[in-house]
Amino acid sequence: MNRSVKILVCNLGSTSLKFCLYQMMEVGDSLLAKGGLERVTDYQTAIDYCVSTLMDEGHISDLSELDAVAFKPVIAENVTGCVLMDDEVLQAMESFAAIAPAHNPPYINGVRAFTQKLPNVPMIGLFETAFYQWLDPAFTRYGVPQDWHDRGVRRWGFHGASHKYIAERSAELLGRNDIAERVRQLYINDTSSPVDGKDLRVVSCHLGGSSSVTGVLNGVAIVHSFGMTPQSGLPQNNRVGDIDSMAVPYLLRQGLDLETIERQMTKESGLFGISGVSNDVRDIHEAAQQGNQRAELALNVLVRDIRRWIGASVMEMNGLDALVFTAGIGENDDFIRSKVCENLDFLGIKMGTVNEEGDGYQVLSHEKSTAKVFTISTVEELVIAREASRWLKKNKLKAA
Ligand code: ADP
């Protein structure tokens, strides 16, 4: 029997609520509905709107038809993976609210509001940090006193849903169903180290409003560009990316106050800060074409940093089988992709024109390229729905 479950995936912003309703079957899954609300001031009203939309459109006739509501929370203290979002987990998110101030508070409020409205439906969270559970401690540790580390000053990693999707899909496209299956089971089985056998070495570049690069060996993340907060790693659209930490006390002593510094690091930096033009790469290209040198520099900084993290990844993996580009910039920006792939013949990369296209992917490398270059469209909501449905299955099995 092909039993199905209905999972409502919700993305909670500080002023928005977006939702997708998925029907997950044992074989195949489908998106039944998609919607959202902007300028949300109170989640109760937004949730009522979401639920009545699903009912009016005939996707559910009763709330009990929802098998789960699933979310993509960012970070919590001592909790990761795909978990039931009970009070303990919400408190653990509260403890780390200062690490993700724009994300954790709306999630905590939103999940509480959903729980009130749907007390009998499990609330499931797939943490963005989940894919990085197996990073080596030598990679997650900063050179800081133990006390700082114990307070959470370490590399955590984000964009986990997206990179996990790429890990699974790239393995499928490369004919390695053993690895794809392993990725599917990552949060179900407690796997702790890469599988034996022939290695599969993939670098996943998620380049969008926020960007990160992950080195994936045999389906497991072993290198990742995000650090302790989503302001780290590559220069982001308007967020700072990695800088020397001593810049902050230096600027404080220069007379800038902490609030100004924080605002500038989170809203006026990254590609916007360098270019002075926009936080959208399309505008930056346009300005660069008209001779704006800061715009050109912003693009060059982004390319250089992507290459830096690809380098770190291939170093750890002893080579490369596939380089994958995903998200808004990764899937669309041929200029950035071509620049990133320049002079990488030592890695076996030979670029061609699009020589193969399929469901949500393209192969950009030449057929003689030993390392393949792909674009793959990431579908984060689907990853969340899939993980939530695996969670339901695992926990029902346990109960049986
Ligand atoms: P987010 O990371 O906010 O979810 P996306 O992954 O959609 O968003 O990425 C958004 C960014 O992708 C935009 O800011 C823009 O810079 C870039 N982008 C989107 N479409 C294109 C395109 N056709 N060409 C170049 N860049 C694009």
What is this structure's SSE topology?
Elements: E1 4-12, E2 17-25, E3 29-37, H1 43-56, E4 68-71, E5 82-84, H2 87-95, H3 104-117, E6 123-126, H4 137-140, H5 146-150, H6 160-173, H7 177-184, E7 201-207, E8 211-217, E9 220-224, H8 247-253, H9 258-267, H10 270-275, H11 281-289, H12 293-317, E10 322-326, H13 327-332, H14 334-340, E11 351-358, E12 361-365, E13 372-376, H15 380-399
Parallel strand pairs: 1-4, 4-6, 7-10, 10-13
Antiparallel strand pairs: 1-2, 2-3, 5-6, 7-8, 8-9, 11-12, 12-13
Helix pairs in contact: 1-3, 6-7, 6-15, 11-12, 12-14
Bound molecules: adenosine-5'-diphosphate (ADP).
SSE order, one letter for each helix or strand: EEEHEEHHEHHHHEEEHHHHHEHHEEEH
Distance between the termini: 18 Å
Taking the sheet with the most strands, its summary is: 7 strands, mixed
Unreliable spans: none
Class based on secondary structure composition and strand pairing: alpha/beta
Shape: globular
- Widest sheet, order of strands: 9-8-7-10-13-12-11
Helix content: 25-40%
